[in-house]
Amino acid sequence: MRPLRIGLLGHGTVGGAFERLLSERAERVEQLTGRRPEIVGVLTRTGGDFAEILERSDLIVELIGGVDDALDYVRRALEADRDVVTANKQLLSRHGEELWQLARERERSLGFEAAVAGVVPVIRVLRESLAGTRIERIHGIVNGTTNFILSEMARTSCSYETALAEAQRLGYAESNPADDVGGADAAAKMAILARLAFDARVHIDDVRYEGIEQITAGDIAYARDFGLALKLIGTAERTRDGISVRVHPAFLYAGHPLASVGGSFNAVTVESEAITEITMSGPGAGGTQTASAVLGDVIAAVSAAGGARPMPAATAVPIIEDAVSAFYLHMEVADRPGVLAQIAQRLGEQGASIKSVIQRGLGENAQLVMVIHPLLESRLRTAIEAIGGLDFIRSQPRKIRVIDEEFE
Amino acid sequence: MRPLRIGLLGHGTVGGAFERLLSERAERVEQLTGRRPEIVGVLTRTGGDFAEILERSDLIVELIGGVDDALDYVRRALEADRDVVTANKQLLSRHGEELWQLARERERSLGFEAAVAGVVPVIRVLRESLAGTRIERIHGIVNGTTNFILSEMARTSCSYETALAEAQRLGYAESNPADDVGGADAAAKMAILARLAFDARVHIDDVRYEGIEQITAGDIAYARDFGLALKLIGTAERTRDGISVRVHPAFLYAGHPLASVGGSFNAVTVESEAITEITMSGPGAGGTQTASAVLGDVIAAVSAAGGARPMPAATAVPIIEDAVSAFYLHMEVADRPGVLAQIAQRLGEQGASIKSVIQRGLGENAQLVMVIHPLLESRLRTAIEAIGGLDFIRSQPRKIRVIDEEFE
User: Fold this and answer.
1) CB under 8 Å to B93, separation ≥6 — which residues?
2) CA-CA distance, A274 to B290, in Å (whole number)?
3) Residues whose CB falls within 8 Å of the CB of residue A68, separated by 6 or more in sequence, listed in order
4) How far apart are CA B353 and CA B348, in angstroms?
5) How far apart are CA A143 and CA A183, in angstroms?
6) Does B405 touch chain A (CB under 8 A)?
């Protein structure tokens, strides 16, 4: 049978690892697909000609990153009736609908397992295993850099800055880590997962996100007292009026399946009435891991069965900004009689009720930490504004979401 | 488009749940596959005619269980060019090769996600996502009954008998639990996973298994002292000379991804050089969960893409009986001078070296518990025979395997 001619766009860490893996596993790919894979051209930022590579290829693997050029290449590849595999989350979280529609029209595969959680097969499981299931909610640790930093802070009680420096030293964080630690990377991935879970049009701009830059060693120490672990969590869920997609630091109770996911690992939990919940975890990044996910998509695209099922068309669903959550609340107060009563009153006016309180320190330097039962975030924000105006409050109260077993 | 006519064999817990789920999700199935599903006939042990149901069906869902009748039905369905979905692990662990070959020849789908770990998508991930990956080892908790019992013993320090009674009361164990607690159920599932992971012919008779009936509250208490969790673990791994597939109780170090899988959940960890490891977990049984897995296979069989990729043909690979493992060793001894030295000598003669020792009790009623560094099981067995003949040994030493981070 004729060979499987692959055009490779990008030759960085993942591109290089893919080329090596493909050569190691060429025989296996041939056994599974009946076609021997070969790379017929490589496009880098400095060399190669896309039109020429496209002409000679059956399938394009896009690992060049960025948005504009990648969009142009993937679009042209599909228009030329080539299958495409990409690991580009930014591209799909911005232009996914156009590309998925194009793939449907052209009846080509557009594989993107490697775009979210690396080799953890969350894309395939959502697209195929759970295709018939009504999914209610996804929680994910989808950024390995932030999970490494938070795990390190928990393990050594060090500061955010120290843990970030360690992550950079070990290659888990880039020298400019803003996209990772600020939550934008996780937001792009959650947009894609929400699109898959709910067949809803979700653009990265629909995802509210916060990063971990403001997390202190103190927050993590308090979390331990409450029996909680702190993670950067992406959430996509159905609400009464639409769907909510967001990324933020969150405290998890110790029994939550994501609470024990340490180091740079990724993990995703999918909840549905019919299945209860399933969790998948594994290394979220790394050259060979991501390359393995790409190779899985390449095999699927050309396997005898005729490639991946097309993405169903998306519907427009309202994106809800204001979600219900439990919260951890951290306040620095001057400890005088009546402090707790006044805070509780402001909370109560917004319907917020206190689950537990810890006080540390005395006199003018006391710290008050609470866990608040679930309520709409907007209402807590109003309460915090009112509390911030009280004369014994020494700095703006800080809130962090809590994902608690008894609340879910 | 014409409807998707389903013939349903079996109407027990899973069959009933499948019928309900299919009716609830009919619209979704139609949206994904273009065909509206309908059940055109139900075969039970007391009613219905298979030939007639087959004649009217496009796809057969086999949930009737047992081996001989099920084999006849699945064979006839494939021979009549029908797609088949089955949840029957006993059938596949005995007659899988014949049926997979038949499906290949007839170019029909034979889906069996529900046969292993219920809705945890381990079959699809092995067949598709990891198709290009050279898998080195699988560890799985693939029986929910035993995991519930062991979790309950760890949680409450109760006896095996008490935990089994509780599992029966809650519906996690059958009134005759022999297949579950004895390990045969897990062995059938591991045979299927090993077949998938290694493309090797594995029959259930190739799987060595032990159950959990001999586990005592004392074993679990000791495990805690060593920082270990006790689980019934299925293992399938490449060895130098072939593959080894086995099921036995095993102690896991606290950081192992399977150590925190509690209750009746199932979980599977797949290890490979390229991917490090990925872990999937979720409810392993239950009517709706298993029915969800069946529905996923039904959708895959008729989706636009043309159904699941056929199983590659299996090769004959030597099945290795004698595997290397670390061990926990429990001995009841009369505590006299020189006891430890004599035991250590018998171990040393077989190349077994001691990692750690705990002694409890004094005088004639002492208990000696050790963890032994990895060695071939046959050599440890020889050492245990020698130790059993020493005059201060008061009962036959007992061994349990240990899966330890530093050993792997």
Assistant:
1) B187, B188, B189, B191, B192, B202, B203, B204, B207
2) 9
3) none
4) 6
5) 8
6) no
A179 neighbors A185 (Cβ within 8 angstroms): yes
Residue from B189, B231, B355, B399 carrying the catalytic annotation:
B189
Dihedral of the CA atoms B124, B128, B134, B136 (nearest 10)?
A: -10
Tokens standing for residue A225 = 């007292």
Provide CB contacts within 8 A for A174, sequence distance 6+. Answer: A145, A168, A180
Return the residue matching tokens 């880098």.
A44
Burial of B136 (0-12, 13-18, 19+ CB in 10 A): middle
* Nearest Cα residue to A28 out of B241, B268, B319, B131: B131
Give the CB-side neighbour count of residue B26, counting CA atoms within 13 A.
12
Range list of β-strands (E), A354-403: 354-360, 366-376, 398-403
Chain position carrying tokens 């933020």 = A248
The yes-or-no answer on residue B231 being catalytic is: no
Residues of A in contact with B304 (CB under 8 A): 309-310
Residues of B in contact with A25 (CB under 8 A): 132-134
List pLDDT tens digits, range B153-179: 999 999 999 999 999 999 999 999 999
Name A59's Cβ contacts closer than 8 Å, sequence gap at least 6.
A4, A5, A6, A7, A82, A83, A84, A85, A298, A301, A302
φ and ψ at B312, to 5 degrees? Answer: -65, 150
> What is the helix (H) or strand (E) element at residue A101, kind and residue range?
helix A89-106
How far away is chain A from the Cα of B326, in angstroms, using its nearest Cα? 25
pLDDT, tens digit, 9 for 90 and up, residues B316-348: 999 998 989 999 999 999 988 889 999 999 999
A288: which chain B residues are within 8 Å (Cβ-Cβ)? 273-275
Residues in chain A: 408
Q: B353, B386, B382: which is closest to B370 by C-alpha?
A: B353
| CA A60 distance to own-chain centroid | 25
> In what helix (H) or strand (E) does residue B117 lie, and over which residues does it extend?
none
A157: number of Cβ within 10 Å: 13
Give pTM, 2 decimals: 0.92
Length of chain B: 408
Q: Which residue of chain A comes nearest to B288, CA vs CA?
A: A274
Write the ipTM: 0.90
Low-confidence ranges of chain B (pLDDT < 70): 304-309, 405-408
The whole-angstrom distance between A345's CA and the closest CA on chain B is: 40
Contact B218, B212 (CB under 8 A): no
| Alpha-carbon span B358 to B66, nearest angstrom | 46
